[in-house]
């Protein structure tokens, strides 16, 4: 593992996120910036997949499902930078006739996407279905991953799926909660307190891991590796990943007003100055 | 001329046709999986669950989760049949179906039992009269409503061979089993039950038998010849068969166990207009009102969708057409 390269890639992904959202004059930069290390770790160190020959069934591959679909900018960035589709396509984000819809969609045939998401709370059910299919297909070495917002845990369906996964021992599955403790109307404590998330999941028969430094690439890789060691032990696995919304840009970090706000030209320039690239193989996608 | 007669080969539940066909499919194809939300015996899915326990998923009373899990199972190329009551299979989980199944192009078969008023004594909370409308509005969704045991059996086999999301609607009570046991179910193809010159009757689900019974009386007492078209596939709708018939008969009645808003009748009205087929249409459907507890036949009578209501409406329509009795 080349940590310096991955750190550079994180910078590049953050640049992509900000430029995409600025270019579209809409989108969700806050959560995207906060989850950058998770996506870089997942797609560059953890998952086994075939980016150049994308198939819906993903036979003999690990599969990832994004449940909080609004952080599509980070998802699209990492998919393109992992070879699923051309990087230059990022410039079409949220534009007419684009495969890069505001929220990820299967409908438009973008390689890497296996479920449409946006309406919250549905992705864990889908991930469980995929985990069951991996077991039926006897792909015992393969793992299903999913990512959820903490605010998303307000939804009722997700508790149906948490109950199911624990009760039915779905142990080829690693869910992660992006625990930035922010949602649109305020902090998660203000809006609808989640209480003790670890205890809640544990009481539903999950194995819970926590990482307090969710924006430290090495720590994120380690926690995902630790989670993989828990596969096949009779319990679904949860990573509570403490992240900071807007991480990487000083005037965005920890501020929930950047949940769904785009940076203007001045703000973009200021932010990009803080996200330097020192890797010759990386460069910003061209804007057509 | 003599009207073609259909024989009631005994009373059987449409849901039994579903459950038995599902078991047959399970033997034939190891990619068939089934999910149920704590209503396994109500949907006759217990035979499948016993025979293929590894391919049966008891989800518990959590229909939203069931729809999502079904969507996920398709990713491993399984063909999930998710079964529950019609209102829990639609209105309760509409957003899940919309996003995770329809918009995601997933090959999920949503199998809805206990539809319509004929669910009976459980009353309005369980009587789905809006589900056809909701499901037909989803892009890419195929909507099927079967009329008897044999048709439900054949439809269940047919949708397994079709790739794409399907809403299969059937019911609770034992009803006349009259269609051919060896029928080939063609999705999107109308079934011409009787030929007639006086009126086209387009009908679906449990009301098909009511229409057949009504037409016997109309023929014997009034000499009225009904051309009865069974529409099992409401979407996509077999426009050609309906238009061809209406061009001959010049009037049409639609009959369904559903609210007239959003039902088969509305779909038919649309194709009549777009095909410049300007004839009088009448509706046998529930009049924008919730149901109530009661026996199935009592309910059909009270809500004016039974055979007597059909006879009355047809006579009225033919009178308007200025048609003389034979």
Sequence-ordered SSE layout with sheet pairings:
The complex is a heterodimer of chains A (288) and B (326).
Chain A: H1 3-24, H2 29-34, H3 36-46, E1 63-66, H4 72-81, H5 123-136, E2 144-149, H6 156-167, E3 173-179, E4 182-183, E5 186-187, H7 188-192, H8 197-203, E6 207-211, H9 217-229, E7 237-242, H10 265-273
Parallel strand pairs in A: 1-2, 2-3, 3-7, 6-7
Antiparallel strand pairs in A: 4-5
Chain B: E1 11-13, H1 14-28, E2 32-36, H2 46-51, E3 56-58, H3 63-75, E4 79-85, H4 94-102, E5 109-113, H5 131-136, E6 142-145, H6 149-161, E7 166-169, E8 174-176, E9 191-194, E10 199-203, H7 207-222, E11 226-230, E12 233-235, H8 239-249, E13 251-259, H9 264-274, E14 280-286, H10 296-302, H11 307-320
Parallel strand pairs in B: 2-3, 2-4, 4-5, 5-7, 6-7, 10-11, 10-13, 13-14
Antiparallel strand pairs in B: 1-8, 6-12, 9-11
Which stretches of chain A of 5+ consecutive residues score pLDDT under 50? none
Radius of gyration of chain A: 18 Å
The most extensive contact between chains is: A-B, 37 and 31 residues
CATH topology of the largest domain in chain B: Rossmann fold
Within CATH, the superfamily of the largest domain in chain B carries the name Thiamin diphosphate (ThDP)-binding fold, Pyr/PP domains
Radius of gyration of chain B: 19 Å
Instruction: Compute the number of structural domains of chain A.
Output: 1
Q: Biggest sheet of chain B: strands side by side, in what order?
A: 3-2-4-5-7-6-12
Structural class of chain A: alpha/beta
Please identify which CATH superfamily of chain A we are dealing with. Thiamin diphosphate (ThDP)-binding fold, Pyr/PP domains
Q: State mean pLDDT of chain B (0 to 100 scale).
A: 96
What's the story with the biggest beta sheet of chain B? 7 strands, mixed
Task: Estimate the global geometry of chain A from the Cα principal axes.
Answer: globular
Total count of strands of chain B: 14
């Amino acid at each position: 593992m080349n940590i310096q390269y991955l750190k550079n890639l994180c910078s590049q992904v953050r640049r992509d996120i900000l430029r995409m959202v600025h270019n579209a004059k809409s989108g969700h930069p806050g959560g995207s910036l906060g989850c950058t290390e998770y996506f870089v770790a997942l797609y560059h160190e953890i998952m086994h997949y075939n980016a150049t020959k994308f198939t819906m069934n993903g036979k003999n591959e690990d599969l990832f499902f994004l449940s909080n679909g609004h952080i599509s900018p980070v998802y699209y960035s990492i998919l393109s930078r992992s070879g699923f589709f051309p990087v230059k396509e990022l410039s079409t984000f949220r534009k007419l006739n684009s495969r890069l819809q505001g929220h990820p969609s299967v409908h438009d045939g973008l390689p890497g996407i296996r479920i449409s998401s946006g309406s919250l709370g549905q992705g864990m059910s889908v991930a469980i279905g995929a985990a069951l299919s991996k077991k039926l297909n006897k792909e015992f070495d393969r793992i299903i991953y999913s990512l959820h917002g903490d605010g998303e845990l307000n939804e009722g369906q997700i508790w149906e799926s948490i109950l199911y996964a624990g009760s039915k021992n779905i142990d080829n599955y690693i869910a992660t909660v992006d625990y930035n403790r922010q949602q649109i109307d305020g902090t998660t404590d203000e809006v609808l307190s989640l209480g003790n998330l670890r205890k809640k999941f544990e009481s539903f028969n999950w194995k819970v891991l926590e990482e307090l430094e969710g924006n430290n690439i090495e720590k994120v890789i380690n926690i995902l590796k630790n989670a993989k060691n828990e596969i096949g032990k009779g319990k679904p696995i949860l990573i509570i990943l403490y992240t900071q919304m807007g991480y990487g840009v000083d005037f965005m970090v920890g501020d929930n007003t950047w949940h769904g706000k785009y940076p203007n030209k001045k703000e973009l320039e200021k932010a990009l100055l803080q996200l330097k690239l020192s890797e010759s193989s990386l460069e910003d996608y061209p804007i057509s | 001329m003599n009207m073609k007669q259909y024989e009631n080969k005994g009373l059987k539940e449409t849901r039994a046709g579903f459950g038995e066909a599902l078991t047959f499919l399970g033997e034939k194809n190891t990619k068939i999986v089934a999910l149920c939300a704590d209503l396994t015996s109500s949907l006759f899915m217990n035979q499948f669950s016993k025979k293929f326990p590894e391919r049966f998923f008891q989800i518990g009373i959590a229909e939203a989760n069931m729809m999502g899990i079904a969507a996920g199972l398709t990713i491993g190329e399984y063909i999930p049949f998710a079964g529950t009551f019609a209102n829990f299979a639609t209105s309760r989980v509409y957003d899940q179906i919309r996003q995770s199944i329809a918009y995601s192009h997933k090959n999920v078969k949503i199998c809805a039992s206990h539809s319509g008023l004929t669910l009976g004594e459980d009353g309005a909370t369980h009587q789905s009269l809006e589900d056809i409308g909701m499901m037909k509005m989803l892009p890419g969704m195929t909507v099927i409503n079967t009329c008897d045991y044999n048709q439900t059996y054949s439809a269940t086999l047919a949708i397994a061979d079709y790739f794409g999301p399907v809403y299969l609607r059937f019911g609770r009570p034992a009803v006349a089993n009259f269609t051919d046991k060896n029928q080939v179910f063609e999705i999107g193809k109308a079934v011409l039950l009787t030929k007639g010159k006086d009126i086209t009757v387009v009908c679906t689900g449990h009301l098909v038998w009511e229409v057949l019974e009504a037409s016997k009386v109309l023929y014997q007492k009034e000499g009225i010849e009904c051309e009865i078209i069974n529409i099992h596939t409401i979407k996509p709708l077999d426009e050609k068969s309906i238009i061809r018939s209406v061009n001959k008969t010049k009037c049409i009645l639609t009959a369904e166990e559903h609210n007239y808003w959003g039902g088969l009748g509305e779909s038919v009205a649309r194709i009549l207009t777009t095909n410049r087929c300007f004839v009088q249409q009448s509706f046998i459907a529930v009049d924008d009102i919730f149901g109530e507890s009661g026996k199935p036949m009592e309910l059909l009578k009270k809500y004016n969708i039974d055979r007597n209501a059909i006879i009355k409406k047809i006579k009225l329509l033919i009178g308007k057409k200025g048609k003389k009795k034979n």
